[in-house]
Design brief:
By secondary structure, the chain is an all-alpha fold. The protein has one domain (7-155). Helix content is 78%, strand content 0%. The chain has helices at residues 6-10, 12-34, 36-45, 51-74, 79-102, 122-165. α2 (12-34) crosses α6 and α4 runs antiparallel to α5. The longest helix has 44 residues, at 122-165.
């Protein structure tokens, strides 16, 4: 028996979450790559990292975002890993914004453009935390669907072996 394609096995909600989170990450990464110096200034404005580490983060983060976004958009077999990485990224963004807000820094999030008029506050923290929760739901659905598909495949294999043996 031929297995259904991977997309059919994962489910509509997982696909929707992968598309939304993938699009968010790719859009954010495109801005960060196109405006690398402005992004470096944003990372430094959070005053959470020393300048040398901020340079490393500003250099690596956009390409990590792009890679994960592309994986979510085009490679369903990688969704478990990509959703897991999204949880870490978005939770890190939310925690960093909470720390920055608690310290009283009045800066813009800088997520999608240099002129981003989205000051760090409850709205930007909620967006980052909401994306982390969406990624958590995505990883749970993908893992559950994968377990069901694996059990279904094992059942098919065991019944087909029984038919061949008889």
């Amino acid at each position: 028996m031929v297995d259904r394609p991977v997309l059919a096995q994962i489910g509509w909600l997982s696909r929707g979450l992968a598309l939304v989170l993938g699009a968010i990450l790719v859009r954010s990464a495109m801005y960060h790559v196109e405006n690398s110096y402005a992004f470096l200034l944003r990372v430094e404005s959070y005053e959470v990292l020393p300048p040398a580490l901020a340079l490393v983060v500003a250099g690596i983060l956009p390409y990590l975002e792009m890679t994960i976004g592309v994986m979510l958009l085009f490679f369903p077999k990688t969704w478990t890993w990509a959703f897991g990485t999204c949880i870490v990224l978005f939770a890190g963004f939310a925690i960093t914004q909470v720390i920055t807000s608690a310290r009283g820094l009045n800066i813009n999030c800088g997520c999608f453009s240099p002129s981003d008029d989205n000051p760090i506050g409850i709205r930007s923290i909620s967006i980052a935390a909401g994306c982390a929760v969406a990624a958590l739901v995505g990883i749970v659905l993908t893992a559950r669907r994968g377990q069901r598909c694996q059990a279904s495949n094992e059942y098919r294999e065991s019944t087909s072996e029984g038919l061949v043996a008889s």
